[in-house]
């Protein structure tokens, strides 16, 4: 299923929100496959610490200053990758926030909803569009949007299904991201770009106060699989480690 790297032309990836959690492990996994990996992160100290740790483990990692909510930052990130690599083989849109709590719909501070959508949806569109010219230069471009099964409307409306807490900012932002993924897949259907959404599963990270039951490395596996999927792989679909997730 997965495409191997070539020694002379390492594949190039950008992982957003890669300084910690699932994003860090996605970068580590791609690095272990021989990819050159851009560590997209907004905080310089945390970004450089992640780059140093990945390099110490043998990965070809490089820092990419990146705030997905900021046009100028995203434009500069695209320029940095163009100057360094000239193309991009995989973009993993991993950066995400919950929007904070509480998120009961009847009492929510609407700024929580706005913040979640700005990062988890608009940020993905902003980054994807800035990087598309570089992805188009790749022989096998892949885009992976790190979503969540809590955004699955099918699961939300299935009695007894595990759907997470009531959260009117976070869960619908992932539903929105899933819908956005489908729209990109439709527009890009006649290209060699494959774009999919993935769910890492309930993973122990800062996002949930480390209450998740999976390790970040386990959470990263599905994104790595779709970032490295071969040309006959899927597009416009939604996966976790168990297989396809219903929209
Ligand atoms: N953990 C889970 O159980 C779980 C389940 C399903 C889906 N997910 C999804 O997995 C992805 C990764 O989450 P995680 O669990 O690894 O959480 P995490 O440890 O909190 O990591 C989130 C990452 O996103 C970055 N980020 C947030 N806003 C950003 C912005 N405006 N610009 C650039 N980077 C930004 C954070 O950077 P800073 O360090 O600067 O804040 C951090 O690197 C998210 O999309 C999340 O929704 C997680």
UniProtKB/TrEMBL annotation:
Keywords: NADP, Oxidoreductase. Residues 11-213 form the Ketoreductase domain. PANTHER family: (+)-NEOMENTHOL DEHYDROGENASE, SHORT-CHAIN DEHYDROGENASE_REDUCTASE. Belongs to the short-chain dehydrogenases/reductases (SDR) family. This is SDR family oxidoreductase.
């Amino acid at each position: 299923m997965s495409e191997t790297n070539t020694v002379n032309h390492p594949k190039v990836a950008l992982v957003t929100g890669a300084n910690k959690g699932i994003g860090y492990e996605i970068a580590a996994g791609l690095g272990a496959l021989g990819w050159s990996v851009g560590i997209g992160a907004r905080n310089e100290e945390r970004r450089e610490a992640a780059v140093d740790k990945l390099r110490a483990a043998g990965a070809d990692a490089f820092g990419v200053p990146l705030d997905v909510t900021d046009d100028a930052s995203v434009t500069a990130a695209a320029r940095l990758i163009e100057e360094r690599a000239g193309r991009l083989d995989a973009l993993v849109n991993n950066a995400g926030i919950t929007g904070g709590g509480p998120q009961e719909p009847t009492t929510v501070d609407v700024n929580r909803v706005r913040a979640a959508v700005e990062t988890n949806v608009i940020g993905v569109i902003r980054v994807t569009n800035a990087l598309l010219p570089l992805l188009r230069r790749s022989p096998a471009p892949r885009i992976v949007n790190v979503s969540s099964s809590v955004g699955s409307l099918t699961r939300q409306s299935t009695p007894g299904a595990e759907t997470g807490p009531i959260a009117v900012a976070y869960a619908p932002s992932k539903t929105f991201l899933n819908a956005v993924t489908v729209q990109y897949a439709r527009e890009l259907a006649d290209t060699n770009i494959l774009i999919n959404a993935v769910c890492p599963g309930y993973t122990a990270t800062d996002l949930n106060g480390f209450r998740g039951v999976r390790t970040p490395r386990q959470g990263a596996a599905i994104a790595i699989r779709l970032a490295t999927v071969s040309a006959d792989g899927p597009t416009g679909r939604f996966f976790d480690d168990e297989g396809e997730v219903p929209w």
